[in-house]
Structure formats: structure tokens, C-alpha cells
Design goal:
Elements lengths: L3 E9 L9 E7 L4 E8 L1 E4 L5 E4 L8 E12 L9 E9 L21 E6 L5 E9 L4 E11 L11 E7 L6 E7 L2 E8 L2 E10 L2 E8 L19 E4 L2 E8 L1
Antiparallel strand pairs: 1-2, 1-10, 2-3, 3-6, 4-5, 6-7, 7-8, 8-9, 9-10, 11-12, 11-17, 12-13, 13-14, 14-15, 16-17
Length: 245
């Protein structure tokens, strides 16, 4: 499938109005493996009592939800032509477990996360489906509006590298994925669930936000060639190459 980098513009739990109080970034490789980081926007006070919502780069990540796992394309529902997909997490910040899981073994009691996609006239994408509402703890209908970003500032195909930690379970389960100019990392370990978000701006990679053990996750070398399926050593631990193009 096509690689992508997307930000979310709004979330709606019908019949409530849409909200935009989270800074959400998703990266996905051609393999269908994705990393989805959602952090709270902070209110910043100014003279005169004015406020605005700060982006993640202005502080540490206050994670509202973070997942890494597999996207599976589904057949359209009968009578519809909108593409559909199912998202199956391998690690989930709402259900931390610090244990190694296979592709087909999501965290226990994971509710379904399935949606259909409609491209709007301005090019944004409306996703409709069902997932757990964290406010109620119940599965509910949702609507999300997404905007795809250019994958890279450079000409030519974007570099895609996705690593999965292997080996010592004491270090927890971790994933790091880079798609073009965007990189997300997540670790579910003994110290809790940690994340990092990095972006390349004007040719320089910068940490946008990070918390916990996510600060120790390695950045991926955009120049080195990796063979898919191989195991490499990086930042003191072993990693399996899920994808490298």
C-alpha cells in the first residue's frame, strides 16, 4: 500500500461537535505498519488573559493515545464503494503490557478499530468508523478528518525505515519508524510507555517532543541501507528490520 504521513484536523463523536485539542501524527510504511501518536495540546497564557493551544514542540509529550501496529485493507461494505481498513495495535499506551507480541497478537481486550475513508473536495480525508471512546470506555462511532503531508522535502521517493525491537523482554517492546521527513518511536517497558517524535526541518532532524524511555530510542540512519528481515544492533539493543526502502 502507499506510504503516508498524516495529521488529524478534528475528531468527532456523534452527535457531539468536532474537537481539535490533540496534536496527532501518523506515519505508515508500504508494509502497512503504522505508528500513531496523539498528544494533548497545552494552553499557553499571554498578557491580557489571551490563550492559544501550543503544539507538541513547545513542551514534552502529554500522550493521550499512542499505538504501533498493522493496517489491513478491508473490502467495502455491501452497497458502498468507500475503502475500509482495520488497525490492529501491537503496543498500545492505553493497555501497556511490557511483553513481546507477534503481528497477530494485539494487546488483550483490544476493542475493534475499523474505519472507512472518503476523500473530500479539498483533498482531506474523512474517516468514519468505530473505536473506543476514552471518555466512556465504550466502543462508539467516530469521525476524523485527516490531511496528508508531503513525505519529504527532497525529490524522488521518500526513505522509509521501520524497526522492531527483539531480544531482551526486560527492555520492553519498542518500534521506531521513519517515513520521509518524519519519525516516531514508541516503547512499552518497565518504566512505562515512552514516545518520541522527530522531524526534519531545513535539513536538520529535530526532536519535536518526547517523554519517558522514548527519549532513549535511537534515531534511524537515513543513509544506511538495511535488508528487510535482518537484525541490526543500534543504541545497545537488537532490532529487526520490518521495512527499508
Amino acid at each position: 500500500m502507499d506510504p503516508l504521513v498524516s495529521i488529524r484536523l478534528s475528531l468527532r463523536w456523534p452527535p457531539d461537535p468536532p474537537t481539535a485539542d490533540e496534536d496527532v501524527l501518523v506515519v505508515q510504511g508500504r508494509s502497512g505498519f503504522f505508528l500513531d501518536l496523539r498528544v494533548k495540546r497545552r494552553q499557553v497564557n499571554f498578557a491580557g488573559g489571551l490563550q492559544r493551544q501550543a503544539k507538541a514542540g513547545e513542551g514534552d509529550c502529554e500522550v493521550t493515545w499512542a499505538t504501533a501496529g498493522w493496517k489491513e485493507v478491508l473490502a467495502p461494505r455491501p452497497g458502498e464503494d468507500r475503502p475500509r481498513a482495520r488497525f490492529t495495535p501491537v503496543i498500545d499506551s492505553r493497555r501497556p503490557a511490557s511483553s513481546t507480541r507477534s503481528r497477530n497478537s494485539p494487546p488483550p481486550d483490544t476493542p475493534p478499530d475499523e474505519g472507512s475513508f472518503e476523500t473530500l473536495t479539498n483533498g482531506d480525508v474523512l474517516e468514519r468508523g468505530e473505536m473506543e471512546n476514552p471518555e466512556t470506555g465504550k466502543v462508539a462511532q467516530y469521525e476524523e478528518v485527516w490531511r496528508r503531508l508531503p513525505l519529504s522535502q527532497d525529490d524522488g521517493p521518500p526513505r522509509i525505515v521501520i524497526f522492531e525491537s527483539v531480544g531482551d523482554e526486560a527492555d520492553g517492546k519498542a518500534f521506531v519508524g521513519r517515513v520521509g521527513d518524519y519519525e516516531l518511536g514508541m516503547v512499552d517497558g518497565a518504566e512505562g510507555f515512552g514516545v518520541v517524535r522527530r522531524e526534519r526541518k531545513e535539513g536538520i532532524w529535530q526532536v519535536v517532543c518526547a517523554n519517558g524511555a522514548g527519549r532513549l530510542l535511537p534515531t534511524l540512519d537515513g543513509a544506511q541501507e538495511y535488508a528487510e528481515g535482518d537484525t541490526v544492533q543500534l543504541a545497545g539493543r537488537a532490532w529487526r528490520v520490518i521495512e527499508s526502502t
